[in-house]
Amino acid sequence: PQTLHVNEPSPKVDWASGAVSLLTESRQWPETGRPRRAAVSSFGISGTNAHTILEYAPAAAQEPAEADSDIVPLLLSAQSATALRGQAARLRSHLAERPELSLADVGYSLMSSRAGFEHRAVLVAADRDGAVRGLEALASGEPGAGLVQGSAGSAGKVAFVFPGQGSQWAAMAVELL
């Protein structure tokens, strides 16, 4: 991409003497037979500096597998154990009534569009029949192959600590952490 926030190169740099230049417009990243790498630096006015090295990703080596040929996790959660069993029964009926649904799509929808409540279960299934059997087991409160149940009770709180550069942090507030 084009160099940001620069309309013309600084006259304080001898741009002709080196191999570095500012991109005044976007251009294609040429193939040279070697790995394509680029360095990106950011020097913030507050003293925050960042530097990363990017490498062009190689082309995909193989075609992705069919979605329903993989093991699919089906995530369920509810506010009570009874509600969890009821949800399993409804999902089992839903799958049985709609054979055109992709198991992978159902698993994705359960993971991405449902709330996470305290009572939880995950069922891993390689096919629709395995999913139906596992959901029947969950609905009846029985153990099943590929089925795990648990509770997300409040065992504590999560804290994220951002210590800065670290030299001022050595054991600071370790008791609180």
Overview of the molecule:
The protein is an alpha+beta fold. Helices cover 23% and strands 19% of the residues. The protein contains 3 helices and 5 strands, in the order βββααβαβ. Strands 3-4-5 form a 3-stranded antiparallel β-sheet. A two-stranded antiparallel sheet has the order 1-2. A hairpin with a 5-residue loop joins strand 1 and strand 2. Helix 1 packs antiparallel against helix 3. The two termini are 42 Å apart.
Structural topology:
Elements: E1 37-43, E2 49-55, E3 72-78, H1 81-97, H2 103-113, E4 119-125, H3 128-139, E5 147-151
Antiparallel strand pairs: 1-2, 3-4, 4-5
Helix pairs in contact: 1-3
How would you summarize what this structure contains?
The chain has 177 residues and is of the alpha+beta class. It has helices at residues 81-97, 103-113, 128-139; strands spanning 37-43, 49-55, 72-78, 119-125, 147-151. The protein contains three helices and five strands.
Unreliable stretches, pLDDT < 50, 5 or more residues?
none
How many beta-strand segments? 5
End-to-end C-alpha gap: 42 Å
Q: What profile does the largest beta sheet have? A: 3 strands, antiparallel
Share in helix: 10-25%
Indicate the multimeric state: single chain
- Number of helical regions: 3
Strand content is 15-25%
User: What is the gyration radius calculated from CA atoms?
Assistant: 27 Å
- Overall body shape: elongated
List its traits.
single chain, alpha+beta, two-stranded antiparallel ribbon, 3 helices
